[in-house]
Amino acid sequence: MFQRLFGRERHANRAITDALYAQIVAAARQTVFYSHWNVPDTPLGRFEMLSLHMFLFQHRLRGEDGVAQEVAQVLIDEFFLDVDHSLRELGIGDVGVPKRMKKLAKMFYGRTAAYDDALERDDRDGLTTALARNVRPDAGTWPEAPQLADYVADASRQLAAQPTESIVAGTVAFPLAKEVD
How many domains are contained in the chain? Predict the structure, then answer.
C-alpha cells in the first residue's frame, strides 16, 4: 500500500518537474534570441540561454521554503543532468565529462551571481554588461544586449507576480521575446 502511494507521489512530482523544466527550456529556445538578438545558435549559446532562464526560475523561488525550495533544488539537479547528457551527446567521453561539468557549474554560478546582483540593484547597465560578457564574449560590442537585459528584467517581474502555488504545481510563464525593429 505504501509503495503504491509513494510511487504515485513520486510520479506526480516527476510530472511537475518535467513540466517545469520543459517550460524553462522552451523559454530559452525562443527563436528571437538566436534569429534577431544574435545569441549564438551553438551548444554554448544554448547553454547560456538555458542558464539564464534557470537563473530566473531559481531567482523567483529564492527565499521560499518547503515544497518551493525542494522544487528549486530538483530543477537545478535536472538542469545539470541535462547538461551532462548534452556533453555526452556532443561526444565528450566519460573521462572528460566531470572536468567540463565542473567548469560549466562554475560558469553557471558565476553568471547567476552577476545577474542577481544587477537585478537586486536594478542596475540595467550592469545587467547589460554581464549579459554581453557572458553570452557574446567574442563580440567587441553586442548591440542587442540591452534588448536581452530588458527581457531579463521583464521576466523577473513577471515571474515575481506568479503565485508560488501555481509554480510548484507545474506552471511557470516566461514572457515572449519580441523582435525590435
Answer: 1
